[in-house]
Amino acid sequence: MGSGTLANDVVAGQLSLLNGRGLILTNGEFGSRLVDQARRFKLEFDTLEFSWGQPLDLNVVREKLSGRSMHTWLWCAHCETSTGILSDLDALKTICKVHGVKLCLDCISTIGTLPVDLTGVYLASCSSGKGCAHIRG
């Protein structure tokens, strides 16, 4: 039970225990919130910002993670509800697996509302205030 902000604070806290640098993807308000939370937790990370309302450019993500990338984790919103963009979960899982990067997802707007397979995802957040809401009978 708790808010989405609390759930993502827990993810940030766990990421603070890892060595290495992260990559946060943002294409709307909730991605921007992840950046803010990562800053508050003093995480080492880079940001890939895409225009609000546009899908994540997965070719840019692949390029950023390729070569001599020092990124050990990637964090983004599965569904950017401020713009209605649903990211390609299978593609993100594949990209992270190929590059040996731990995938972390804000699934607050998708768990409980859409079929979500978290196989291969390191951390995922959800909360009781959205798709997994507690219904009193």
Tell me about this structure.
With 137 residues, this protein is of the alpha/beta class. It is 31% helix and 22% strand. It contains 4 helices and 7 strands. The chain has a 5-stranded parallel β-sheet with strand order 2-1-3-6-7, with helices on both faces. A two-stranded antiparallel sheet has the order 4-5. It is globular and about 40 Å long. The two termini are 17 Å apart. The model has no long low-confidence stretch (mean pLDDT 91).
Short structural summary:
The chain is α/β, with parallel strands linked by helices. Helices cover 31% and strands 22% of the residues.
Question: What are its keywords?
Answer:
137 residues; alpha/beta; five-stranded parallel beta sheet; two-stranded antiparallel ribbon; 4 helices; 22% strand
Describe the main β-sheet briefly: 5 strands, parallel
Element order, helices and strands?
HEHEHEEEHEE
Task: Going across the biggest sheet, name each strand in turn.
Answer: 2-1-3-6-7
What are the segments in which pLDDT stays under 50 over at least 5 consecutive residues? Answer: none
Q: Roughly what percent helix?
A: 25-40%
Number of strands: 7
Individual helix count: 4
Return the average pLDDT rounded to an integer. 91
Radius of gyration: 14 Å
Strand content: 15-25%
Q: Which structural class matches the secondary elements?
A: alpha/beta
| Amino- and carboxy-terminal Cα gap | 17 Å
